Amino acid sequence: MPSSDNRVIALEEHYCDPELADHFLGGDALAAPLRKRLFDIDDARIREMDEAGIDMQVLSHQAPATQKMDPATAVRLARLANDRLQKVVEAHPTRFAAFATLPTPDPEAAAAELERAVRVHGFKGAMIHGLTNGSFLDEKRFWPVLAQAEALDVPIYLHPSVPNEVVTKTYYEPYGAEFPMLLRAGWGFTVETATQAIRLVLSGALEAHPRLKLILGHMGEALPFLLWRTDQALSREGNRPLSFRSLFAKHFWLTTSGNFSDPALLCTMMEVGADRIMFSVDWPFVGNRPGVEWLQSAPISSDDRAKIFAGNAQRLLNL
After folding, report:
1. Are β-strands 126-129 and 56-61 bridged in parallel, bridged antiparallel, or unpaired?
2. Which end of the chain is less crowded, N or C, counting CB atoms within 10 A of the terminal residue's CB?
3. CATH code, 143
4. pLDDT above 70 covers what percent of the chain?
5. pLDDT digits over 226-272, tens only?
6. Given a cut of 50, is residue 2 above it in pLDDT?
7. Gap between the Cα atoms of 261 and 263, Å rounded
């Protein structure tokens, strides 16, 4: 059923914790206006939400968060960042919810931090940014994190990060210097995150954790468009028996973050259904108003629009 009201909930909306971000942003890594927005989690952010008609943001840390740190530093900073974020949510409980930052360089500590963030702070799940120091999440040493998410009945949001140096050099040079967004939102993010998702499906992790819930942004990182072909190819003779489509459709929810395209939305709805799609902006990298205005005018039913704007997120995240 659609949302019980006309709320708009945005799920991939970023911020920066000053202490954590100091380890990877440096002094001038972002343009000043973008940096200002990432570090603002109060009045200016809420004003921009109000101007666009967004009722709630689910806050998540900017990439790469703790995924590229040494284990001890990651554990310490993730805990501090989550504690500080909880105070923000507590100060604005009707406007903000949160995804935890997890110290995946120490998988056991990451599982424990997820439990603490959910049970103590009331966080709605976690966001993991790309590879953990070069390792994909399907490696069995990370399965305790998946098991903890399953036990808590909260999702893990698989978010992109800049590809590792070998991939960057092999795939994107010499064009990365002239087109730096090629290895980010222009293409590299999609390749890395879609690969992360595909590897999880193939690894056996989803059969081992049949109630695990995963989120992909950017309208599914192109996987809805490729779903039939991927499923058909992996079902050919010589492959281990596996229903890629069934596992993907059972375990993944998708968001609209940074992909305000009618054809992409309709393709995604036809492949996974309106109940699996949730509204996101990808703020501050994309503006709030274009995202809201796009979905308001998209060629879909009012019931599906209400589901995507808020109803699906309310159910998945227990908002």
Report:
1. unpaired
2. N
3. 3.20.20.140
4. 96
5. 999 999 999 999 999 999 999 999 999 999 999 999 999 999 999 99
6. no
7. 6
Nearest to 145 by CA among 203, 192, 55, 212: 212
Residue 1: inside a domain, yes or no?
Answer: no
| pLDDT averaged over every residue in the chain | 95
Domain assignment present for 202: yes
- Show the tokens assigned to 287: 């503006």
Q: Tens digit of pLDDT for each residue in 125-154?
A: 999 999 999 999 999 999 999 999 999 999
Total domains, the chain: 1
- What the block records as the tokens of 218 is 């950017």
Residue of 231, 282, 303, 304 with catalytic role: 282
Domain span at residue 239 reads 9-317
Distance in angstroms (rounded) separating the CA atoms of residues 191 and 171: 11
DSSP 8-state class, residue 56: E
Q: Enumerate the β-bridge partners of residue 254.
A: 216, 277
Q: Are 137 and 203 in contact (CB under 8 A)?
A: no
Burial of 151 (0-12, 13-18, 19+ CB in 10 A): middle
| Other beta carbons less than 10 A from residue 165's beta carbon | 9
Examine residue 106 and state whether it is found in any structural domain, yes or no.
yes
Residue 290 identity (one-letter amino acid)? P
- The answer to whether the peptide bond before residue 174 is cis (omega within 30 degrees of 0) is yes
* Residue 43 known to be catalytic: no
Whether pLDDT at 31 is above 90: no
Residue 33: pLDDT band by 50, 70, 90 thresholds?
A: confident
To the question of pTM greater than 0.85 for the whole model, the response is yes
- What's the chain's Rg over C-alpha atoms? 19
DSSP 8-state secondary structure symbol assigned to residue 182: G
